[in-house]
Specification:
It is built from 2 helices and 12 strands, in the order ββββββββαβαβββ. It has 275 residues and is mainly beta. The longest helix is centred in the C-terminal third of the chain and has 17 residues. The protein is flat and about 85 Å long. The protein starts with a strand and ends in a 16-residue tail after the last strand.
């Protein structure tokens, strides 16, 4: 015998945008620049940029116009090369096969011989600088110049909270959150008002509380849009009798997941998903 119940799920999404700036640099390889004296640099929120899609996390980094300048690389001082960090500018390293003594390892059946890897010198050409003692500067990529500018970082974040009105004591809220149901109410605005017309007062109270929390939780972010919805998740309770055992299990959500904590016999096939 089976009987059907429902669980009500209220979900609020608040899509926000946050902008921060910092000084940055990158190798200058030539090309035009929007220099400091070419115009007035805009404020962070005056730089045009739109999110690629709403209600999805995303981030982008942009160069603020009219903030660029070319300077000598502060890492290498201008040559584009600096002392190799691996060999300390010597151009060679101790051979790691013979540990720098120039001889192959000696065993009971062999005599000491010159190391085949370094031909007995105990040294090998530095792998990083190819024996030159100088390596390419990572700060300027060998150009000797860097471009300094103000970098604008824009982060779009989708903050989501929900509330589950549980009608079935055997199922906890997390199980209802992870399944889908029929959407019976959905609204989308820049600033939403709490649901007041929903028959269940618990949902209306949860809507007002979560909206109030979102209004004060992101003081450094700009709210672009809000969306809330109410979903009805079906839950079927099925009673069964197997041998001398009477039991009950639940099938819930459009995914038809099964919750049977006291199921008398476990199936090990790959097609079952009994929780």
């Amino acid at each position: 015998m089976s009987f059907t119940r429902i669980a009500v799920k209220y979900t609020l999404e608040t899509f926000t945008e946050k902008r921060t700036t910092c000084w940055a640099f990158e190798p200058y390889i030539g090309g035009p620049l929007e220099k400091l004296d070419s115009g007035d640099a805009p404020f962070p929120w005056d730089v045009p940029s739109e999110p690629p899609v709403y209600f999805s996390n995303h981030a982008v980094q942009l160069e603020v116009p009219y903030t660029a300048s070319v300077k000598v690389c502060h890492v290498c001082g201008g040559p584009g090369r600096k002392k190799c960090a691996s060999c300390s500018g010597k151009g060679w390293e101790y051979c790691f096969h013979c540990h720098g003594d120039g001889f192959s390892p000696v065993t009971l059946r062999t005599e000491a011989k010159d190391c085949l890897h370094c031909t007995g010198s105990g040294q090998r050409k530095c792998w990083k600088c190819s024996g030159e003692g100088m390596a390419l500067c990572k700060g300027c990529s060998g150009t000797g110049q860097i471009k300094c500018f103000i970098r604008l970082t824009i982060k779009w974040t989708n903050h989501m909270d929900d509330h589950v009105v549980e009608k079935v004591a055997a199922l906890d809220d997390d199980k209802i959150r992870n399944v889908s149901g029929e959407i019976i109410c959905q609204e989308e605005e820049v600033n939403l008002l709490p649901l007041t017309h929903f028959p269940d007062t618990t949902v209306s109270m949860a809507s007002a509380q979560i909206l109030q929390n979102h209004a004060i939780s992101f003081p450094e972010e700009k709210v672009l849009k809000q969306r809330h919805k109410v979903s009805i998740v079906p839950v079927a309770a099925v009673s069964y009798k197997w041998r001398n055992h009477d039991g009950l299990f639940h099938v819930y959500g459009f995914e038809q997941r099964v919750y049977a904590p006291n199921y008398p016999q476990t199936c090990f096939c790959c097609c079952c998903s009994i929780l």
